[in-house]
Design brief:
By secondary structure, this protein is of the alpha/beta class. Helix content is 32%, strand content 15%. The two termini are 29 Å apart.
Length: 465
């Protein structure tokens, strides 16, 4: 059997490799370090954590990230199981000893009889035209590979700067102070004419908001991001505010073409617009509000918008150097390139955020390829699961025009039939999400290719010492 070629030895590449070899399918992992270093990595180990040692919440009953941990553990995830083995105290989060974590994963894969590690930079994917390839190089892809990705995907389908606007849970918006309307009621039908959710500010509220933006605490770029220039289309809102107090009123907060039905006799001084983030109507994106503010500052500043006074955030904003593809536009349901189906993508380069999410997509791609090699029907995970919700974000054609990377969150899940309100109701709702997901994930796993290799992790690590 020809080995699967995996470009990138990070979270996604290692997880995909593990899922494949445990189904009897050999792999070759191409990792360019130490032959070619990055600005961020410090070691030669596979699966090196460069920014944080936290895999975030481990609460699998009330948190979408914790649920994703649970689903991956049930699927025999190398990343999550090794993370749990090398966990360090972090309250309700799963934090790991970074060195021990990467060292053990490296030892496991190096010593596995079906894994070959090649320390070399791959810049010509076309060399593998007769092979199955997984591109899992993450945000720090080499310059040579990026040039190759531009050829494979077309320039407009590849991003190098991640400008992320905050996303808000719909049920946390005060609808007594917000309304649906497109500017000048444009649109061919009622849905188009009410495509945006508008949040008005008075003159005093606007200037209070601007002052808070300018004075807020900002996140500094990492060393490897500092030379990446801003594009006019992704300027931080606080940078725009610093250019003059009226700048935002002539940009993303312009009030023209809108009438507040709660106050029809007075034109709003400024308006913040929210756009649907998914078909379920559970999430809204704040249009044009990419920001460098620290997360705690974002919550304080954005809640100065009257309709968002009690806003709950599914994702906070940010700007950083990244490399990701427009997955809904160029990938098919198996996460293959539509025009070159021997090439799969996995991990952060697909448009997910976070170590856990990246590993999860690697897990999924590994299983998709195993299904194909074992002549099984393609079977994506249920949308009601954490991994299924992430998968849907990468494949849904509804988001391809405004596609941005996303962490896993309950706003990506299909709504429950009954939605309880209030703080206690929210806790019950989250528990209902996780209960439903666990049931559906367990059922899905039962129909997946079984593990056929009987090699224990401890044996692999011991043989590498």
């Amino acid at each position: 059997m020809k080995p699967i070629k995996i470009i990138g030895g990070g979270m996604a590449g290692c997880e995909a490799a593990w899922q494949l070899v445990n189904r009897g399918i050999p792999v070759i992992i191409y990792e360019m370090r130490p032959k070619k270093d990055t600005f961020a990595h410090k070691t030669e180990d596979l699966a090196e954590l460069v920014c944080s040692n936290s895999f975030r919440s481990n609460d699998h009953e009330n948190n979408a990230v914790g649920l994703l941990h649970w689903e991956m553990k049930e699927a025999d995830s190398l990343i999550i199981n090794t993370g749990n083995k090398h966990s360090v105290p972090a309250g309700g989060a799963l934090a790991v000893d970074r060195e021990q974590f990467a060292r053990e994963i490296t030892g496991i894969l190096v010593s596995h009889p079906l894994v070959t590690i090649v320390r070399d930079e791959i810049i010509n994917v076309s060399d593998f035209r007769d092979d199955t390839v997984i591109i899992a190089t993450g945000p720090l892809s080499s310059e040579g590979l990026i040039r190759e990705l531009v050829k494979l995907t077309a320039q407009e389908n590849l991003a190098f700067f991640d400008a992320i606007a905050p996303i808000i849970y719909a049920d946390s918006v005060d609808m007594t102070k917000a309304w649906f309307q497109s500017r000048y009621d444009k649109g061919e039908n009622e849905a188009a004419q009410k495509a945006y959710l508008n949040c008005a500010l008075s003159k005093s509220e606007y200037y209070d908001f601007i002052n808070s933006l300018i004075e807020s605490e900002k996140t500094q770029f990492h060393n490897w991001e500092k030379d990446t220039p801003y594009f006019n289309g992704c300027l931080p809102i606080e940078t725009m505010a610093e250019r003059g107090p009226e700048t935002l009123r002539f940009g993303p907060m312009k009030p023209v073409g809108l009438t507040d039905p709660h106050n029809p006799d007075s034109k709003p001084y400024a308006v913040v617009q929210l756009r649907h983030e998914n078909n379920y109507g559970t999430l809204f994106n704040i249009v044009g509000f990419q920001t460098k503010m620290k997360h705690s500052a974002q919550i304080d500043v954005f809640r100065k918008i009257p309709a968002l006074k009690k806003a709950k955030f599914a994702r906070l904003g940010g700007i950083h150097r990244n490399t990701f593809i427009n997955s809904p536009e160029i990938l098919n349901e198996r996460l293959q390139l539509k025009n070159k189906t021997n090439i799969y993508f996995a991990g952060q380069i697909t448009g997910v955020e976070g170590y856990v999410e990246s590993a999860a997509i690697g897990l999924l791609v590994g299983r998709f390829i195993a299904n194909e090699h074992l002549n099984r029907i393609h079977s994506p995970p249920p949308l009601t699961t954490a991994l299924g919700a992430l998968y849907n974000h990468l494949t849904s054609k509804e988001v391809k025009k405004n596609f941005q990377p996303m962490n896993v969150n309950f706003g990506l899940f299909p709504p429950l039939l009954e939605q309880a309100g209030g703080r206690q109701g929210r806790k019950l709702r989250y528990k209902a999400y996780t209960d439903r997901a666990k049931c559906d994930w367990t059922s899905w796993l039962m129909h997946q290719p079984i593990q056929i290799q009987n090699i224990k992790r401890e044996q692999l690590v011991n043989t590498s010492n």
